[in-house]
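Quick one, probably user error.
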């Protein structure tokens, strides 16, 4: 169903992710914040945690708990997402986000600042701008 290598971005550091958010439009930044997640990846011989972001059809998979999700990974990698059973035409594609999402404090704080209670005015941009650091980078 999905080859995770095609259009999958990995941000190794908080600074690189925040910088990326400042160079795209605020509309794109709002979308990107919804498509990203804490991600465990291998860098040479070390396993690291950064932010992964699906920038293709992988971003339209919705979340469902294990046992309800109809797509997932056939092994311990997150390289290729496959159907876990036959999916009927028109059926929603559901994935268990918990199978790959890793807690990453700085990223969760960024999401909370952008979409959390701190955004009290009518636009989300003020929260996103505040979360990514405005023009500080």
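Nope, works fine. Designed sequence:
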């Amino acid at each position: 169903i999905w080859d995770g290598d095609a259009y999958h971005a990995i941000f190794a550091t908080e600074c690189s992710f925040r910088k990326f958010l400042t160079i795209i439009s605020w509309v794109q930044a709002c979308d990107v914040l919804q498509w990203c997640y804490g991600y465990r990846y291998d860098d040479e011989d070390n396993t690291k945690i950064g932010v992964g972001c699906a920038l293709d059809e992988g971003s339209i998979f919705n979340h469902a708990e294990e046992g309800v999700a109809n797509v997932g990974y056939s092994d311990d990698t997150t390289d290729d997402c496959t159907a876990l059973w036959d999916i009927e035409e028109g059926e929603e594609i559901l994935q268990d986000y918990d199978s790959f999402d890793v807690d990453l404090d700085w990223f969760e704080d960024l999401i909370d600042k952008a979409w959390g209670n701190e955004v009290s005015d009518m636009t989300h941009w003020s929260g996103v701008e505040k979360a990514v650091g405005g023009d500080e980078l």
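The helical segments are 14-23, 26-35, 105-115, 125-132.
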